[in-house]
Every structure is written in structure tokens, then in C-alpha cells.
Design a protein that fits this description.
alpha/beta, PLipase/COase/thioEstase, 7 strands, 206 residues, 21% strand, hydrolase, 30% helix
Length: 206
Amino acid sequence: MSHILNIKTAGIPLNQAEKALIMVHGRGGSAQDILSLSQHLNVKDYAVLAPQALNHSWYPFSFIAPVDQNEPWLSSALEMMGETVKAAVDAGIKPENIYFFGFSQGACLTLEFLARNAQKFGGVAAIIGGVIGDKINRENYKGDFAGTPVFLGTSNPDFHVPVERVYATANILREMNAEVTEKVYANFGHSINEEEIELTNSILFK
């Protein structure tokens, strides 16, 4: 089984935009859910794109399960990310004007995709996520973020995402020349808080 390309949109039409924000929902969520969050971000002149996962899940098991257990869903989900970026690029938006916001499973997918395809992007906010796999395969991660700002927000503890993986992800992204800001909230729970939205605005959309 694989995902079917299904991109929901908000903001200004893609063919009229100079900047795009790609928003990636979590397990059990939807493209519409995550798009509604864009109202709280300073993206009034952006096209906003949100791919929809088949059955509301990008891959079946935990992001720290052995990778082959999450196939072929994971490879298909990474392909969807590539297709969503391509939609923006084909509309004339430069990669350095493409931004990303992912939550939970969507944050993991976003970070995995970007670490495999690093270049200068506009910026990245990943709330409660890290790169994917039971072990980190550093050989998968190539490219240079060339100073792309990245905000990683998480709770400690978090039932789904160990804080150690968030720190390990931050270190990998820094090695690849991303400008990483991380913020760990004690016992906040598995959700997005107001300060994370404010930090996303100040780091990415200032």
C-alpha cells in the first residue's frame, strides 16, 4: 500500500505566491487540522500546502521501530513530501522560500525528509519529532542546510518521542549547517503550546 498525492491548500494561490509553507499533520490528524494552525503563524502572503496521509497515518508503527517494519509506507510518505515540495518549486517558488511545519508523526517525517535532502530552505519548525529509525543511519543524511533556521520544540517526557532523539536530531542538523534552536518543556504533554507558535513566528516568520 502507498499514499495517494492529496494536497490541501490555504493562504494565497500557489501560482500567485512567492513563499510557501508545507504543513505535515500527525498520526490521526488531517491536512485540514494542521492547516487551521496556519492562522496563528505570520504567513498571510504565503501559499500553505498540507499533504494528507492515507488513513490519517504516515506509517504504521513508532518512528523508532526498525525502519523495515514501517515500509512501504515510510518510503511512500517521503515520496509525498518530495512531490509536495516539487509542487511549490514547479509553481516558481525557490527552495529558500519554502518553509515547513510538522507535528508529531508529521514532524518526524518532515525531519527525515529534510535530513535526506538538505539544502537552503526558508525554515523548519518540528514540534515533537526526530529523525526516523530504531538506530540513526547517518549515511542517509546528505546535503547542506546553508544556515536554514530550524526550531525543535518538545516535551520531556513525551510518550512517543524520547528527548534523546530530539537532541540527536538537533546535532545532526547542526552538522549539516542548520541554525537549530531547541526548546524542551517539562511535562507539557503531546501537543503544541502557545510559546512554540510564538517561537516559530520569531525564528521563521519574523
